Amino acid sequence: MSDAPSVIFDLDGTLIDSVPAIHAVSNAVLTEMGFEPLSLPMIRSFVGKGVPNLVRQLLITSGEDPDGPLFARVEHALIARYETDVEGNVPYPNVIAALDTLKEMGCRMAVCTNKPFAPAEAALHHVGLWEYFELTLGGDSMPTRKPEPQMLHHCHQALGGGAMIYVGDSEVDAETAVNAQAPFAIYSEGYRKTPLTEVPHDVAFSDWAMLPGLVEGWKW
Fold first, then answer.
1. CA-based angle 197:42:120, to the nearest 5?
2. SS3 call for 92
3. CA dihedral sign of residues 180, 185, 191, 195
4. Using CA atoms, how far apart are residues 93 and 104, in angstroms rounded to an integer?
5. Which residues 6+ apart lie within 8 Å of 71 measured at CB?
6. What angle do CA 45, 47, 211 make, to 5 degrees?
């Protein structure tokens, strides 16, 4: 495929199902601090806007001040576990085959996630995806995080500019693509909370086996 576009991916809910790992880490921190554990669906609803938002939601749900003195303790404990407790992170079906095909097509690839960089790196290594990407940016890699567009712009420039497509799963990803004026492919089986019809996107896919064909058929 000549002039293959760059493809930039979100991580949680897009490339990997990380909620089981985030659920385990969050509850380990909560119970250590004397709070009740939370359900997996509740933790799922907190994912996508970065660790500070996750910490605030955990504290609010536990009846604590989200901006009080416990914030720093919970954030530190969460990130410390995040980097080592990687069990429960799994790639979605057909992700590896899709990435292999995109690589063969000549697509340069990067990850742009609101997860802090070190836990993102650990998760990608754990699931065997790290080597596919020329660049990974985490939510603490730049002064802003998604849905601000700077992270996506930085990835795009690092991959050489030109044609690109952003692949994500959530409302935050859709807003990021709009803010960056980037073509957006949404994985419909991720962590999106609102109906697909209400989320701006250029194309949707429910199976990763579909993505290479969508990229190849894109009208650049």
1. 80
2. coil
3. positive
4. 19
5. 55, 56, 59
6. 105
The two three-digit tokens of residue 86, written as one number? 């990687």
Q: Which residues does the annotation mark as catalytic? A: 10
**Cα dist from 190 to 2, 8, 17, 220, whole Å:** 31, 16, 8, 26
- Contact of 133 with 6, CB cutoff 8 Å: no
Instruction: Spell out the alpha helix ranges (H) of 47-158.
Output: 51-61, 70-82, 95-104, 117-126, 150-158
The angle formed by the CA atoms of residues 188, 98 and 213, to the nearest 5 degrees, is 75
pLDDT (average), residues 143-169: 97
Are 90 and 17 spatial neighbours (Cβ–Cβ below 8 Å)?
Answer: yes
For 61-78, the pLDDT digits (tens) are: 999 999 999 999 999 999
DSSP 142: S
DSSP structural state of residue 123? H
**Mean residue pLDDT across the chain:** 94
Q: Specify the pLDDT at position 130.
A: 98
User: Shortest CA distance to 121 belongs to which of 106, 143, 136?
Assistant: 136
Alpha-carbon span 98 to 211, nearest angstrom: 7
Instruction: Say if strands 109-112 and 135-137 run parallel, antiparallel, or are unpaired.
Output: parallel
Residue 14 corresponds to which amino acid? T
User: Using alpha carbons only, how large is the chain's radius of gyration in Å?
Assistant: 17
Q: Is-contact 102 78, C-beta < 8 A?
A: no
- Strand pairing category for 6-9 and 109-112: parallel
> What are φ and ψ of residue 22, in 5° steps?
-65, -40
